[in-house]
Design a protein that fits this description.
Length: 118
């Protein structure tokens, strides 16, 4: 059974940093993808960043490019999202997800709340 667990959310002020973690179990990441998504109240869920596990190839949404960094630690089957210079518009529930094909995410975490105050 594949499970994903996010942690690291919280309340920060604008300009500060947070690091989210996504621990996984029951999933082999070779040739797979991990994505970080977020959903703010009243808005659609959006892909924030994505990493291809075996190559480290990354994608970022324009809204976070240069501020967020996605990474993974193979030995721990854990992914991370480092968020720097955070803005109030980054406030959302953040989810990690995994899938075996680009653009398809079959497994999702429960989400972690991130709130950025101005």
């Amino acid at each position: 059974q594949v499970q994903l667990f996010e942690s690291g959310g919280g309340l920060v002020q604008a300009g500060e940093s947070l690091r989210l973690s996504c621990a996984t179990s029951g999933f082999t990441f070779i040739s797979s993808f991990m994505g970080w998504f977020r959903q703010a109240p009243g808005k659609e869920r959006e892909l924030v960043a994505r990493i291809r596990w075996n190559t480290g190839s990354q994608y970022y949404a324009d809204s976070v490019k240069g501020r967020f960094t996605i990474s993974r630690e193979n030995a721990k089957n854990t992914g991370y999202l480092q968020m720097n210079n955070m803005k109030p518009e980054d406030t959302a529930v953040y989810y990690c997800a995994a899938g075996r094909q680009l653009g398809t995410y079959d497994w999702w975490g429960q989400g972690t709340q991130v709130t950025v105050s101005s």
